[in-house]
Amino acid sequence: MSVLVVIRGNSGSGKSTVSRAVQQRFPRASCLVVSQDTVRRHMLRELDTPTAVNGDLIEHIAAFGLAHGLIVIVEGILDADRYGRMLERLTASAAHVLHYCFDLSFEETLRRHAGRAQSQEFTPEQMAQWYHGWQPLLFVDEVRIDATWSLEAVVDRIDRDIRGAWALTRPPVTTP
């Protein structure tokens, strides 16, 4: 039974950390994490421009995972203007979909970024260029994650929501 999980937010908000932690709670080869950074920066070595193709590749990888009955976590900045239509198509194609979005101040994203392994890779000035604030998707209600949520609380919530979606698809238990 496949479940699509979308986790969006500004750079440094915790999307990748949350995605990996959620993935660890499920058996091997049952949860696919499709990271925008991995697809765009590592697989394609692509800049995030209007002509970029990483959104198409993210969509194809996620669709593959859904077709194979996996939990598919698509995570990244995934700006609503540039990636909204792709996310809308993926959402329409999945039986069970969960959307989450980090809503953190720029100061909070800088604080979180300072504790990351790649903190030396990006300057605060670069992060300011990528920061877009709260940018909701118009076709779905997203769970809005603010700075008061701990990592454990976010991971617990997503884990519980995935297991709840699974429960909806199980056949009812009948007693003789």
Automatic annotation (TrEMBL):
Gene3D superfamilies: P-loop containing nucleotide triphosphate hydrolases. The keyword Ribonucleoprotein does not apply. Pfam families: AAA_33 (PF13671). Keywords: Kinase, Transferase. It comes from the Bacteria. One of its GO terms (molecular function) is kinase activity. InterPro entries: P-loop_NTPase. This is Kinase.
